[in-house]
Specification:
Largest sheet: 11 strands, mixed
Low-confidence stretches: 1-42, 80-89
CATH architecture: 3-Layer(aba) Sandwich
Shape: globular
Strand order of the largest sheet: 3-4-1-2-6-5-7-8-9-10-11
Strand content: 15-25%
Helix content: 25-40%
Distance between the termini: 43 Å
Number of strands: 11
Length: 401
């Protein structure tokens, strides 16, 4: 194997094991919809659609063609539609129903395999370990799969609606992390939709026969899938702002791509895992594409970086980035998975199965809720919308720079 391939393999493997490591690190996590009060009757619509990345070929499970992007969208509904849905209780979606798109026959086996992989990843990284422990949780007499099914039977705050052909509002494109899930941040999606945004997510992984989940179709950054999603967002909103949020590997992909002018109007980078690194040689070995991007390019859009480095930003490897960069560093420990509501969903199982770390989960949920308010204020500002900044009566929960 060539040195170049070795470097790429090391970069991918370092990303793919982040979630395993994070399950064992004493950080923290989220808040379900209980914390982020949602309106009643519901005013959030959910729809899905199918896009194809013509620049990336995918082969697997009987399909051979352009890589399919299974797009999910959350968006605010008009009051009349919301009132009708509220009176009838119509189409209130369960979490598992977010993964039931209407697809052509050739893609149904691909999506089924993708869902199986996402379910396994959810169990491994969001169910198996407590926040501050490295031993698996004993759910007896339930199995982990039964716990997963129990959580996925819970209701969301959205109901199915027609995919909007056009929207007059800003759009957020979310990119999940390595071995992540397209719907790993349902609460974030609902929160932004409740506040007037269209929120888009999709799979940036494809199931590969004989390969573990997250193994890439190509070893280089997937610029083309990001472009496909952002260009789709531009077509949808007819001149409004388009924003990009990435977590972990999703944030790394943002740094590798968003130096291109016109792709997005702001970028939120949620813990790339490079923020606390000080050894350039290590970073060059593990994250060569990201290091090349941040040291070679300038960024024509405002950027908000968030990471728990147990100290004040700016983050060492990003000090020289040419662009308008703001920083948030949680003052309390914050788990790498706590940026996703999938990790925090387990909190809703109290009374039905063991939640041995419920206090830790609650603390993480409170910090997640505070983070969502910060992200909203940042994007409202850059969308030209009225901003109501978060208030902290007991003191700011973030280091800032």
């Amino acid at each position: 194997m060539s040195a170049a391939v070795n470097t790429r393999a090391a970069s991918f493997l370092s990303r793919s094991i982040v979630r395993v490591r994070s399950a064992w690190v004493a950080f923290g996590l989220f808040v379900p919809a209980l914390v982020l009060a949602q309106p009643s009757p519901p005013s959030i619509g959910f729809a899905d659609t199918l896009l194809f990345n013509d620049s990336l070929r995918y082969t697997g499970f009987g399909y051979d063609g352009p890589a399919p992007l299974f797009v999910q969208a959350w968006f605010p509904l008009g009051s009349s539609i919301a009132d009708t849905a509220g009176r009838l209780g119509a189409n209130i979606l369960r979490f598992h129903e977010l993964r039931k798109p209407t697809l052509p026959p050739a893609l149904q086996p691909v999506h089924q395999q993708l869902v199986l992989h996402m379910d396994s990843a959810f169990i491994e990284y969001d169910l198996r370990y407590p926040v501050n422990g490295d031993g698996p949780i004993d759910y007896a007499p339930l199995t982990e799969w039964q716990v997963k099914d129990s959580l996925f039977s819970l209701g969301t705050h959205a109901h199915r609606a027609a995919f909007p052909a056009r929207v007059d509002r800003p759009v957020v494109v979310y990119h999940h992390g390595s071995q992540g899930l397209s719907d790993e941040n349902v609460w974030m999606a609902e929160y932004f939709a409740e506040n007037g945004f269209l929120f888009l997510s999709c799979n940036f992984h494809w199931p590969l026969e004989g390969r573990s989940y997250g193994f890439p179709v190509v070893w280089t950054p997937d610029h083309s899938s990001i472009r496909t999603m952002l260009q789709f967002a531009r077509r949808l909103n007819g001149g409004n702002k388009v924003f990009f949020i990435g977590h972990s590997w999703g944030a790394q992909e943002g740094w590798c791509t968003l130096h291109e002018p016109g792709l997005a109007d702001a970028f939120i980078s949620l813990e790339t895992t490079m923020e606390w690194k000080t050894d350039t040689a290590e970073v060059r070995d593990k994250w060569p594409f990201v290091l090349h991007a941040i040291t070679t390019h300038s960024y024509p859009l405002p950027i908000l970086m968030v990471a728990d480095t147990e100290g004040e930003p700016p983050f060492p490897m990003f000090k020289g980035v040419r662009g308008d960069v703001r920083y948030l560093d949680p003052k309390e420990p914050f788990n790498h998975e706590s940026y996703t509501s999938a990790y925090l969903l387990r909190q809703a199982g109290q009374g039905r199965f063991p939640v041995p770390d419920k206090e830790d989960l609650h603390q993480q949920a409170e910090l997640y809720a505070a983070l969502l308010k910060e992200l909203l204020a940042f994007l409202q500002k850059h969308a030209g919308l009225p901003v109501v900044g978060p208030r902290y009566p007991d003191g700011d929960v973030f280091h800032r720079h």
